[in-house]
Amino acid sequence: MAFVNKKLSISEKKKISDMKIKNPYGNYRDIMEGITPSYITIDNSSNMWLAHCYTHKETLECIEEFIFMYNGQPIPVQAKKRINGKNVIWEISRIDISVNMIVEDHKLINSLVAAFKVYNTTGWPEENNEAVSVICDLGKEDEV
Phi, psi (5° rounding) for residue 15? Predict the structure, then answer.
């Protein structure tokens, strides 16, 4: 697995837009028309990717909405970001997976964590080499 942050070309952006991937708890456009990211964190060898969709700024916790494309299935993810010095901590609070994906749950979670570690704070390509520690908190006692 080798995720990288990537700015999408116009044709790549259109390709994702044409997929009409819905973010069930995003903004109106995400729900009705589908997501239209400008940047994604992608593993080209497996075609897995993480796309930021929406930030709920009206809440104190600034919950952020993502779509994680895994095995051709879009998975909605909610997470909260905290920054503490050189540590970026993503608290993943919700992952909506279908029953048939539960069998692959461990691989899915490891892939999602790997994507968030590369995503860093914004998912912009210039963050690919930034020296920070990214920690994913899955709501368990241990951090991954």
Answer: -60, -45
Per-residue model confidence as pLDDT tens digits over 29-49: 777 778 889 999 999 999 899
Tell me how crowded residue 97 is: count the other CB atoms within 10 A of its CB. Answer: 17
> What distances in angstroms separate CA 61 from CA 26, 58, 115, 127, one per listed residue?
15, 9, 22, 23
Which pLDDT tens digit goes with each residue over 84-124? 888 888 888 888 887 666 656 678 888 998 999 888 888 88
- Residue 19 DSSP code: T
Domain boundaries, the chain: 4-137
What string of DSSP letters covers 52-67?
Answer: EEEEETTSTT-EEEEE
